[in-house]
């Protein structure tokens, strides 16, 4: 299978530019042995490369590239398949952009094209190349620090007080060293429940978790609870029962965030939207969770207009290495900024994921990087400061 991978990366600071010709010569020989062709661009700081050839060979070479410490912040921009090569007869050819204007580089690459239909400006690979040459995306190049730059130090004083019978999962602002919300996890439904019985149990579980958590939740902290979206539709007086439970827990509606998952099928959007209006009228905030993982996406965001969205692990995992994931998050952040919707990034496990998202403008996070279940919140500190 003919495979194409396009990536960009950052030359390591300690590596002199003078080593590039030797690197290219060795890489060209390796590529040729794997029947892989490549076009490599360098602008003085960043590399951009198009690799294409048999899938096994391309993946082997790309794996070596990712492990090469002479560069860092390797971001995969495209992985695609095609019926024929775009380029040929070159193990790898280097174009140093410091010695070419953008027009001559683009034409030189076109001249190397071996596609049956010839490369055109509609080709995705060439579009990526053109964008790099014209430096139209440089403001989105977030250069994250190495993971070992940080220590994550538990802070018992900054952790939520435990509550009997409830598990808390904090939402944190790591650089502000602040817990901004506490998520209380309701009990799971017994196996076999469906229909109205499932939704009744879900509402009871949510109100029960609210009651157990309420006494331990500080007045200045939001309490976050997840609920099945159709519970708000199929359970009579669901919103009024939630309001009564909030009062019984000694809280006010303005402290509560109800999260509904985008991955749950909302079969009656108008009825759900009416329930959301009732929530808002009562003072309860709404979050769309697992945002980007489901099929509703921006359509649901436009229809419902929540107070928050929570991006899940399906989007944030390895985001520092994935151009497509970065593009999705950039789009979500721009949209949410225009609508004044707060964004939470959940499922954070790696320092690089947090650093990239923080650089992109996210401030609220959840995940094992900051809070293992039942453990104290761990705040990031630079190793030099420890």
Automatic annotation (TrEMBL):
<dbReference type="Pfam" id="PF04940">
    <property type="entry name" value="BLUF"/>
</dbReference>
<dbReference type="InterPro" id="IPR036046">
    <property type="entry name" value="Acylphosphatase-like_dom_sf"/>
</dbReference>
<protein>
    <submittedName>
        <fullName>EAL domain, c-di-GMP-specific phosphodiesterase class I (Or its enzymatically inactive variant)</fullName>
    </submittedName>
</protein>
<dbReference type="InterPro" id="IPR050706">
    <property type="entry name" value="Cyclic-di-GMP_PDE-like"/>
</dbReference>
<dbReference type="GO" id="GO:0009882">
    <property type="term" value="F:blue light photoreceptor activity"/>
</dbReference>
<dbReference type="InterPro" id="IPR001633">
    <property type="entry name" value="EAL_dom"/>
</dbReference>
<dbReference type="Pfam" id="PF00563">
    <property type="entry name" value="EAL"/>
</dbReference>
<feature type="domain" description="EAL">
    <location>
        <begin position="125"/>
        <end position="386"/>
    </location>
</feature>
<dbReference type="GO" id="GO:0071949">
    <property type="term" value="F:FAD binding"/>
</dbReference>
<dbReference type="InterPro" id="IPR007024">
    <property type="entry name" value="BLUF_domain"/>
</dbReference>
<dbReference type="GO" id="GO:0071111">
    <property type="term" value="F:cyclic-guanylate-specific phosphodiesterase activity"/>
</dbReference>
<dbReference type="InterPro" id="IPR035919">
    <property type="entry name" value="EAL_sf"/>
</dbReference>
<feature type="domain" description="BLUF">
    <location>
        <begin position="2"/>
        <end position="93"/>
    </location>
</feature>
């Amino acid at each position: 299978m003919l495979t194409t991978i396009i990536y960009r990366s950052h030359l390591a600071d300690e590596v002199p530019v003078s080593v590039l010709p030797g690197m290219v010569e060795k890489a060209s020989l390796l590529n040729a042995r794997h029947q892989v062709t490549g076009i490599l661009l360098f602008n003085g700081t960043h590399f951009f490369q198009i690799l294409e050839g048999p899938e096994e060979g391309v993946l082997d070479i790309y794996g070596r590239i990712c492990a090469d410490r002479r560069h860092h912040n390797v971001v995969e921009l495209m992985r695609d398949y095609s019926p024929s090569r775009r380029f040929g007869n070159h193990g790898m050819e280097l174009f140093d952009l410091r010695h070419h204007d953008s027009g001559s580089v683009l034409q030189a690459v076109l001249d190397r094209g071996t596609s049956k239909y010839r490369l055109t400006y509609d080709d995705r690979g060439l579009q990526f190349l053109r964008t790099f040459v014209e430096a139209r995306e440089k403001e989105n190049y977030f250069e994250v620090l190495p993971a070992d730059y940080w220590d994550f130090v538990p802070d018992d004083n900054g952790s939520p007080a435990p509550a009997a019978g409830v598990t808390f999962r904090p939402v944190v602002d790591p650089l502000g060293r602040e817990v901004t919300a506490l998520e209380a996890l309701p009990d799971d439904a017994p196996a076999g429940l469906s229909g109205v019985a499932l939704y009744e149990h879900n509402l009871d579980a949510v109100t029960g978790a609210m009651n157990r958590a309420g006494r331990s939740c500080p007045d200045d902290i939001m309490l976050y609870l997840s609920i099945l979206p159709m519970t708000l539709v199929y359970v009579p007086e669901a919103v009024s029962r939630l309001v009564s439970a909030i009062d019984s827990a000694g809280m006010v509606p303005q402290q509560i965030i109800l999260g509904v998952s985008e991955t749950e099928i909302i079969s009656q959007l108008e009825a759900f939207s009416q329930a959301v209006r009732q929530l808002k009228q009562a003072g309860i905030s709404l979050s769309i969770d697992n945002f980007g993982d489901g099929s509703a996406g921006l359509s649901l965001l436009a229809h419902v207009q929540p107070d928050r969205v929570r991006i899940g692990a399906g989007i944030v995992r390895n985001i520092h290495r994935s151009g497509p994931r970065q593009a999705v998050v950039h789009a979500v952040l721009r949209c949410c900024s225009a609508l004044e919707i707060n964004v939470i990034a959940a499922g954070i496990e790696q320092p690089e994921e947090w650093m990239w998202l923080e650089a992109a403008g996210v401030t609220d996070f959840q995940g094992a990087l900051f809070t293992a279940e039942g453990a104290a919140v761990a705040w990031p500190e630079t190793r030099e400061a420890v």
